[in-house]
Amino acid sequence: MKASLAHWTVAVPPASALLLGAASYLPRHAAVSLLCAAALMAAVLAAVHHAEVVAHRVGEPFGTLVLALAVTVIEAALVVSMMLAGGPEKATLARDSVYAAVIIVCTGVVGASVLAGALRHREQSFRIEGAGPALAALVTLAATVLILPVFTTSAPGPRYSTAQLEFAALASLALWAVFVFVQTVRHRDYFLPPAAPGDESAHAAPPTLGQAWLSFALLFVSLVVVVGLAKRLSPAIEAAVDAAGAPQAVIGVAIAAIVLLPESWAAVRAALANRLQTSMNLALGSALASIGLTIPAVVLASIWLDLPLVLGLDPKDIALLLLAFLVSTITLGTGRTHLMQGAVHLVIFATFLFLTLVP
Length: 359
Fold this sequence. Notes:
Blueprint: H1 7-23, H2 30-58, H3 62-86, H4 93-121, E1 124-125, H5 128-147, H6 162-186, H7 209-244, H8 249-259, H9 261-272, H10 276-292, H11 294-305, H12 315-332, E2 336-337, H13 339-357
Helix pairs in contact: 1-2, 1-7, 2-3, 2-7, 2-9, 3-7, 3-10, 3-11, 4-8, 4-9, 4-10, 4-12, 4-13, 5-6, 5-10, 5-12, 6-10, 6-11, 7-8, 9-10, 12-13
């Protein structure tokens, strides 16, 4: 780790925040949208850099937890704000974004990390003692939140009743809290990466306390900017979706993809540095937080503000979710990965994207 932060990583977050503030006064022109998109990508890169600085200071798995928590809290705020603005038409937005986040993580992020790591290092390893229980918790939460509403009878359609929503929210939050306790206290060693002699950053001197706090502040600013710019670009995304005649679920996919960009890029970088354990911590931790934090926030807003909320998935999406979990069980069951596993995950991810556009 360098003795001082790179100048661009310090300049990008406040500059992007200024652009976000100015964008509200600028017309919705194509040039403004392109500028916002460029600033969003720069903010993502800055967020990943500062997350790595914080992670290097506090150590694993706390570093990955910081990024997962920050991203998910802001994702929940974005979803709730869009539900408030959209009314009944956004009843499925939370479902679509959470489902997309889980699929993107389990197939896209894991697949890209495994494939990138395999291309550079042939085979990589991680601890199944941590990955296995994390996947079990994720499967349980996804089934409770996204699948069971299709089969319950207390409310019409793929919906939960108010009591069922409250139970699902509490169960999601409780299971996520138990996972965090296990990850950071009781069995922290299950989530620690093995030694990576080829990774220079793993052996460099950690940043100072002042640098770590500065990076933490800039990380928060970067993530707020990412979500703010995503919301600023959402009308353009919705207009493009309508113009193309694509399903409304594409909007949820776009939200999840934009919000997960920092974690996705950080996970691939870790795999390239032969730290696949960090990649798995990021992927599974972010997917768990996406349900464990987003769903309670959305349920609270739905009950308190009387917002319609549909959580149950369509049969096609249930089948694809189960396929993703089945393949993830096989991949995470050995503790070692190679090129073929990454390719399988990415094919499922491509199938998800294609069937979202062509249901």
